[in-house]
Amino acid sequence: MHASAVAEQNYENAISSLNSLQSNFSVLQTSVLRKHKDDCKHINDTIKYLDRVGISLARLDTLPAIHVSGTKGKGSTCAMIESILRSNGYRTGFFSSPHLVSVTERVRLNGMPISTDKFSAHFWKIYNQLNATQEHNVDMPSYFCFLTILAFDIFLREAVDVCVIEVGIGGRYDCTNVLRKANTVGITSLGLEHTKLLGNTMEEIAWQKAGIIKAGSDVFTVPQPAQCIEVIERECRQLKATLHIVPPTLHEYCWAKQPSLMEDTCSIVGMNTSLAIQIATNWIHKQHSKTAQNTVPLFVTERTTHGIDTCFWPGRLQRISYDSGKTLYLDGAHTVESMEVCARWFNAKSNCDHKRLLIFNTTGDRDSFKLLSTLLSVTKFDAAFFVPNIAFRGTTRADAINHNFPLENQMQRCRENCVYWTETMQNMNGFVHETIESVFTQIDKDFNRELGDSDILITGSVHLIGAVLTALKLERYAHTSSPAK
C-alpha cells in the first residue's frame, strides 16, 4: 500500500466511510413497509460479515458477554453494570448506542471511549477486509452492524474479562443477537417504541425483547406488565432459562455502605440500579461458583456501592452549570414513560424562581405531541425552542451526520411541534430555529441574566443533546461527569 493511501486511512475518513453505510431516509421507509419480511436477514448478514473478518461463531462464543435489551433505561442500566464490574476488579468492554458527540463513545474499554487511533486501526482493518470480499457493489454491513462487528473484534483482541452489550433496536433480530453465549441476560422496563418495526402491542414488544434470552441463561428483569411477564416466562421455559424479577426499590437491599443515590426520589433510577446490581452480581457469582444461584442476593458489597456511586452516563438526567446564570438539564428521554421521569426530575431539581426554558426535538416515529403533553402535565415553561439536531449553520461534525432523518423532515417536525405548543400554551413563547447556536443567541438576548437565572431542559433526542454539547463547546461532558448545582 502506498504511503499516501496509508495517510488517507485516518479517523476523519473512517467516519466518512462509516457514514456511507447509513440507510438514507427513503431506504429506511421502504424497510419499515416490509416490516418483518427480512427480519432474520440482520442476523444472517452479521454472521456472514463476521466470518469474512475472521470471527467465527465458535470464536464469538469465547467472548464473556452480558446481553441487555429493553425499552427504558437500557443504556444507563448497562453503564451501571459495567461500572459495578469494573469496581470489582474486572477489565471491561461496553458496546452502546447512540453516541452524543463522537462515535468512539459507543465502544468503551474500562469505562472510557476507545481512542480515535484505536478506532481507526480497527475500522480500516475490518473495512478493507469487507470491501475486498464484496460479492456485489452493495455487499457491505449497515452502519450499526459494522460497529457491532468492530466492537466484538476489539473486545476479543483486548481479551476483556467481560463485556456488556446493549441491544440496538428490539432484540430478537438485532445485530447483537448473533451472540449465542451470554449466561447472564437483562431486560429493562418495557414500553411501546419503534412500533413500525417491533409491533403495536406490549406482547409483541416483549417477544422482540425476550429474543435475546439464551439457553440455560439467568434472565433478570424488573417488575413488568402482566402480559409482558407472560411472554418472557414462556421464552424462558422454552430455553430452560431461569427468570429472576429484581426488587423494585433499593430499600429492599442490605448495604455494606449505602450509595448516594439512595436519596434519589426517582423510582425508575432505583429500579434500574437494582437490575444492574443483580445482573453484575450474578455474573460475578458465576466466575467463582459452578452452583446455580437460585435466589436474588440482597447484600451489596462496598465495591459494588463504589461502582454505583462512580457510574457516569452522559445525557441522562445530567446537569451542567453553564455560563453565568444558566444550568443545562440534559436527558435523552424519547418515550412517554421516560419523558415523565425526565419531567419530574426537572421539576424537582430546577429552581422555581428561575426562568424555565425547553429545547426540544424528536426524530423517527416518536409521537412528539404525546411527549410534549407529558412534559406540560408535570411542569411549566417560560418558553420553548424547537430545533433540529444541528449545532451550527454550515459545517457539521462527521460524527453527527445522520442520513436517516433529512434536515427538511426535521424542520417540518419542529414547525409542527411549535404549532402544537403555541396552541396548547395559548400562543405563548414557542420558537423555531435552524441551529442550536441560533437558539442560544436568542436565549442570551431575550432571557439574559438581568431577567434572572435560567434552567434549560434539553430533551426528546439523544442526538439533540450531542448537538447542544457541540454548539456550546462542552464535548468533554460526553466523557466525564459534571458538577451539578
From TrEMBL:
Catalytic activity, reaction form: (6S)-5,6,7,8-tetrahydrofolyl-(gamma-L-Glu)(n) + L-glutamate + ATP = (6S)-5,6,7,8-tetrahydrofolyl-(gamma-L-Glu)(n+1) + ADP + phosphate + H(+)
A GO CC term assigned to this protein in UniProt: mitochondrial matrix
Compartments, record wording: Cytoplasm; Mitochondrion inner membrane; Mitochondrion matrix
Pathway: Cofactor biosynthesis; tetrahydrofolylpolyglutamate biosynthesis
Known role: Catalyzes conversion of folates to polyglutamate derivatives allowing concentration of folate compounds in the cell and the intracellular retention of these cofactors, which are important substrates for most of the folate-dependent enzymes that are involved in one-carbon transfer reactions involved in purine, pyrimidine and amino acid synthesis.
Family note: Belongs to the folylpolyglutamate synthase family.
Protein name: Folylpolyglutamate synthase
The species this protein was found in: Anopheles stephensi (Indo-Pakistan malaria mosquito)
